[in-house]
Amino acid sequence: MLIKILGSGCAKCNRLEQLTREVLTEQGLNATFEHVTAMDEIMAYPIMTTPALVVDEVVKVSGRIPSKDEIAVWLKA
Fold it and tell me: Which of 3, 5, 6, 13 is catalytic?
């Protein structure tokens, strides 16, 4: 599983990554993380605001920090 956090590296982006890592640990899942900060790379995705969570090249959420329950559902799928 490839997980990308899209954002400039702000506190919200870091929090989204932290929550996602916590869910992975709780579920016993493995994933590779990328924190994408380059604007040209972020703009390649269909999002208007950051932070954004991308799982295996599918945007799951953008513009807000989801709950751990929401993240868990996306990672199980």
Answer: 13
